[in-house]
Amino acid sequence: MNLEDIAKKAGVSRSTASRVINADPNVSKGTRERVLAVIAQENFHPNAAARTLVTRRTEVIGVVIPTPENIFFTDNSYFPMLLAGLGEATRERNYALLLWLGEVTDNDERLIGKISNHHLMDGLVIASLDSRHSLYSRLAELRRPFVMIDKPMNGAEQISYVSIDNVRVGELATEHLIKLGRRRIAHITGQMTTTDGYERFLGYKQALERHGLPFDEQLVHYGYFGRLAGYEGAKQLFPFKPDALFAAGDTIAIGVLQAAHEAGLHVPHDLSLVGVDDIDVARTAIPQLTTIRQPVQRKGAVAAQTLIDLIEGKVSGPQHVLLPFELVIRGSCGALAGSQLGAFSREPFLAQQSMQGGDA
Known about the structure:
Elements: H1 3-10, H2 14-21, H3 29-42, H4 48-55, E1 60-65, H5 69-75, H6 78-92, E2 96-101, H7 109-117, E3 123-127, E4 146-149, E5 160-163, H8 166-179, E6 185-188, H9 195-210, E7 220-221, H10 227-237, E8 244-247, H11 250-262, E9 272-277, H12 280-284, E10 290-293, H13 296-311, E11 320-322, E12 325-329, E13 345-349
Parallel strand pairs: 1-2, 1-3, 3-4, 4-5, 5-11, 6-7, 6-8, 8-9, 9-10
Antiparallel strand pairs: 10-12, 12-13
Helix pairs in contact: 1-2, 1-3, 6-13, 8-9, 10-11
């Protein structure tokens, strides 16, 4: 059946049937129920192309994850968890996902142009975009709403994003190591051209200063979010005799564990170790990683919900959402030695959740 058949069987005009299908509020309850009953009885599905012409929406959102495929599929579970949250939220809102996966190089102007202006998408979610990336400079050209996962380095006031308080993450991890009596605390950063990397480094410095410990440039390795960065960074830091190390990500921490094992260092007795994220490698590592757990899957879901709200006009203006996180204490920091805390304990830190125009 087509729309005219549905309208005729329900005893209404074609325009009225169309308004019911498109959830127009200017239809009486009785008429709406009658049309919906016929639609259900006939198992009617509107033509997607025709509906797009009426609503000017495709009910498709694009997701851009500009990272090499080997990191997405093999290095850790962060991005699959993020994608799971995005998929769940879009299904709940009857939208579909169009995924742009893989590293977009500076020379790939055609692909960047497609991402910027693709006609099959109502909006974009952009994950983990480095401020040096050529797509970053093109954000102002996007003709559709977009939401960034992680706070952008520049112009954050004008851009919608979902993130955590990464400065406080760095402080919390470092303060935990200080409470354990560690004084030569090293740090391996993520990319300093992302807010995750830069702000966690900033939190590390602030925690040292607050507790009267000197900031030692020799105890910092400027790296990136990857296992190899942790491995190579740790080998460069070990000659300076750190007694603890804050890794900006769990995959970095896994690289540190490998380097410590090769150097004959025992974690946590010789080196206390804390990571960030609480992805799968944190729980399978030996020893298991003490880490700052962030709600990765929920981050994806909230980003999708925020974008769809912008698309549908339910909110307006830049939306800023900070999600809660917590310290999960396991074996790699030494806090459980001789205690009765069991497998792990938690020290929650609920970040202030804020969203312009509403709460997360």
